[in-house]
Write a structure and sequence with these properties.
By secondary structure, the chain is of the alpha+beta class. It is built from three helices and five strands.
Amino acid sequence: MDMTITFPGGARVDAQFGAFTISTDQPPQAGGEGSAPPPFALFLASIGTCAGIYVLGFCRQRGLSTEGIQIAQRMATDPRTGMVAKIALDIQVPPSFPERYHDALVRAAGQCAVKKHLEAPPQFDVRTVVTAVAR
């Protein structure tokens, strides 16, 4: 999937792909307007929402209701680096959710493509390319 990253003004940075535009901004204390989530928040949200897609798919395949199910995501940072050191996902289910599927939900969430890419990260190739000015 190719994306085009644009700079619409201020501290906003957008990613455009297909028919979608994902907008980001910085909070006011970082020089932005706070008009959209910062990029790192979207990155973190992609982990939980990806796990959620797999939980949703598991439930749909078995005709199980997702009512009352939610995922609580928590991050712990390394105090030395300030980097995220651990991400915990708690799949919260109502008492009526069949206990025999609890472990299977965890396995389903573990199939998340975002998580798998973090476990085997891609290489990055960042460079400058001179292009003609669009008029």
